[in-house]
Design brief:
CATH class of the domain at 6-169 and 316-330: Alpha Beta
Strand order of the largest sheet: 3-2-1-4-5-7-6
Distance between the termini: 15 Å
CATH architecture of the domain at 6-169 and 316-330: 3-Layer(aba) Sandwich
Shape: elongated
Number of strands: 13
Strand content: 15-25%
CATH topology of the domain at 6-169 and 316-330: Rossmann fold
Length: 332
Amino acid sequence: MAEPHFDLDVTLGLFDGISCGQEALKRAGITTRIYLASEIEKYPKMITRKNHPLTVQLGDVRNVVADDLPHINLLMGGSPCQGFSFAGKQLNFNDPRSALFFEFVRLLKECEPDYFLLENVMMKKEFKDIITEHLGVEPVMINSSLVSAQNRKRLYWTNIPRVSQPKDKGIVLKDILENGVVDREKSHCLDANYYKGGNLKSYFEKHRRQLVFSKKLVVPEATKKGYTEIEDGDCFDATFMSSKTRRGRNMKDKSNCLTAANYDYMRYEHPTYRKLTVKECSRLQTLPDSYLQDCFDDKGKEISNTQKYKALGNGWTVDVIVHILQGLKWQN
């Protein structure tokens, strides 16, 4: 039996970020003739422009009104969650960022779309019940861990039919690493503050930052590879580390000749640690490796990793959205 097909005329993405919803539509095989996006942050818009150049940006959601729009087939968004998150201060709807939820409600009533999808974080029951009352549907909780290497529990309110739990793809954290090792199967939840980095102390405290532990230390040297790998217990020559001519730094078998200048001999003891790379965080959100590569600002400068980490932390796990959107294909 052939897989059913579904086309949308107009989709409106609120709080669109880096347009993970648009990427999910493409991956789900659902075409949309026009994609309208409401987003105010400049760097996410630049990332969207690189990946989805036909996106029509509308600006601030508070200035978007139905009278200016064509009929919307699908309305989707993830309103800012800082006031709801258990990791935040739990200010709920008094937080002006989370109060933007009511802009979603307003446009849902004004636009009367055929379908809608709202995503948000796990929250207290009293807040969840308010959202449920306004949207008229109960949320489904889906953990991104079923389709990615990340523990990320999120609530999804939608009138798209046949929403169920995705099948577990069995992806674990080590599967998405460029190098190194980890001490757990699933990553901590990626958030917009990941760019702040981490250390071993914060790693085991409440506001955790996922770290990767390296079995080998990479030391630069003037060879064709440009580096040498030092293993646990090995010694290496760390003299003049910025030198562009020095080689033979690995002293696995014999020490280098000791001179008056050569005194920075060191022993490497595992572990060292690092943050997840932007590419690895993209994989946690099931985005293509290239999604945040070669993204430039209006002056032609590559967007910083800090802004990329923020954008990814605020984004969606694409394959979860793909799974939900599959329900549209059975409406023809």
